[in-house]
Amino acid sequence: MASKLRYVRFFDDFPVVPVPNVWSDTVSSGYRDPKIYVVQTVDRVVERCLLMSTGPGDLVLDPTCGSGTTAYVAEQWGRRWITIDTSRVALALARTRLMAARYPYYLLADSPQGVRKEAEVTGKVPPEYKTEGDVRKGFVYKRVPHVTLKSIANNPDIREGMTREEIDAAIQRHAETELLYDKPYEDPKRIRVAGPFTVESLSPHRVLAVDEERPVAEREGQRDNAVQFEQMILDNLRKAGVQNTVKNERLAFARLDPHAGRWLQAAGEYVDSDGKPRRVAVSIGPEHGTVGAQHVKEAAKEAVQGVGFDVLVICGFAFDPHVSEEAKRYGKLTVLVTKMNPDLSMGDELLKKTGAGNLFMVFGEPDIKISTDDVEGNLTVEVRGVDVYDPTTGQIRSHSTDDIACWFIDTNYDGESFFVRHAYFTGADEPYEKLKRALRAEINEAAWSSLYSTVSRPFAPPETGKIAVKVINHYGDEVLKVYDVVAVPA
After folding, report:
1. Strands 379-390 and 395-399
2. CATH number, position 404
3. Exposed site from 13, 76, 105, 351, fewest CB < 10 Å?
4. Who has greater pLDDT, 356 or 415?
5. Is 0.70 topped by the overall pTM?
6. Residue 233 CA: distances (Å) to CA of 221, 241, 267, 354
7. Are residues 308 and 350 in the same domain?
């Protein structure tokens, strides 16, 4: 063995290795962050795919959000992102994960600090120009030098009398280099959290043919599909009933039959906790679209005609903001705005794997108090709980804020898009605690406690005259209420 040439290679000699086509460093292990979602992908997998195929400022689309790993990694590496999911629970988890995370602050190439760092690394001073902080121009990356005898011999900075350290620095400056796009320089004095983002709730929409003269077979096919959709909803409604957020409080139908009404598709009975039979009508919203206030109004008018019904169940995948206000206007008729689980659109085979307990949910109404400051006229919103309808007794009772995971305020609602301007958490766990520990900095406890609160920070009256409050429970169900605050008393 003494005849063979051998050497010792230290990690400091060349502290990088090429990435082969087998990614052995992406497997799950006990050293990575614990999973919060059953099919959560390891961050390293998404990170490597994203760095290979995109640059800072690019837009990344993930149509299967899950726990939000793609959005989390994209946010970390300066990419814009859109992520989509049919599960409200998944979106609630992803939203909390993004808002509670701490991200490194990388030096932008288009920034004064980045220009100085680039000059320090390369030994070349760029011409002066006005920086704009454009992330699309990338970061300042670490680099690997390729030292050759030619680069040493032609190095203009090497002079007689230099120390070994000075010679090494000169070689580093003038050697050919390769950028390490997964290792940008980080500013340790700055801490970054997620930038502004919105969460939009939409029901699935179908594109219809633009020509008015559609074939007769197509029109009949659409009618057949509508009948099949209503029948599928009624079949599942008979089995699952209507559930609120409390265990064992479920409206179970003793009878539910099709009803040939214009706005009512079914009529039946259920027995309340006192053993008294109560008549119930069901109105089913569109398969592709939202339920509006006009739908509730027409269905309620039909339900009170003749002998009338005691309860009207309005089923829909999504509801317009003013539906909850319309549902209160019909005296003795109790109108239950019931959210249908998107899993109902998956078909019978896939639906068998979904629990029937949460297919039809009644979230309830948030109990909101809006106050005005006497001195400056600022507004304060307080969420005091949720009014929940108990289908077993027919009573509406107030629950504490324990049923609320988080709530948001749009302090200047324009009637079209809900923009989160205030965000608060009231659940059992404080999602910002992990971020608080990671910051390792002096924290303003008063400001920090305002994130985990049932009372908002004061804000100026809206220019539009309206504010909107969105409340989300632990199942991911959400309700949006709009308030006219022009006439709020002091």
Report:
1. antiparallel
2. 2.60.40
3. 13
4. 415
5. no
6. 18, 11, 13, 15
7. yes
Looking at the fold, whether 347 and 227 belong to one and the same domain comes out as yes
Contact 279, 311 (CB under 8 A): yes
Strands (E), 300-394: 311-316, 334-340, 360-361, 365-372, 379-390
In DSSP notation, 218-266 reads HHHHHHHHHHHHHHHHHHHHHHH-EE-SSTT-EE-EEEEEE---SS--E
What pLDDT band is residue 207 in, cutting at 50, 70 and 90? very low
Do 261 and 353 belong together in one domain?
A: yes
Cite the DSSP H helix spans in 103-188. 112-122, 149-153, 164-174
8 Å CB contact between 174 and 145: no
- Whether residues 219 and 320 share a domain: the answer is yes
Among the listed residues 195, 187, 150, 141, the one whose alpha carbon sits nearest the alpha carbon of residue 171? 150
**Encoding tokens for residue 364?**
């309830």
In 2-138, where do the E strands start and end?
59-62, 80-83
- Find how far residue 17's CA is from the centre of its chain: 37
Can you give the residue range of the structural domain that contains 282? 212-362
How many H helices and E strands in the chain?
12, 19
256 and 330 assigned to the same domain: yes
CATH code for the domain of 275 = 3.40.1350
- Number of structural domains the chain divides into: 3
Asked if 316 and 368 sit in the same domain, the reply is no
Return the C-alpha torsion angle 252, 253, 258, 259, nearest 10: -100
Amino acid of residue 420: V
User: Closest Cα to residue 467, out of 447, 483, 446, 449?
Assistant: 483
Specify the pLDDT at position 208.
Answer: 47
Do 123 and 180 fall within a single domain?
Answer: yes
Alpha carbons within 13 angstroms on the beta-carbon side of residue 239 total: 13
Q: Hey, what's the torsion of the CAs at 232, 234, 236, 239, to 10 degrees?
A: -150
Distance from C-alpha of 407 to C-alpha of 239, rounded to nearest angstrom: 32
Q: Tally Cβ neighbours within 10 Å of residue 38.
A: 8
CB 311 within 8 Å of CB 280: yes
- Look at the alpha carbons of 25, 27, 31, 33 in this order and tell me if their dihedral is positive or negative: positive
pLDDT digits (tens, 9 = 90+) for 9-64: 777 667 788 888 888 888 776 566 677 777 888 899 999 999 999 999 999 999 99
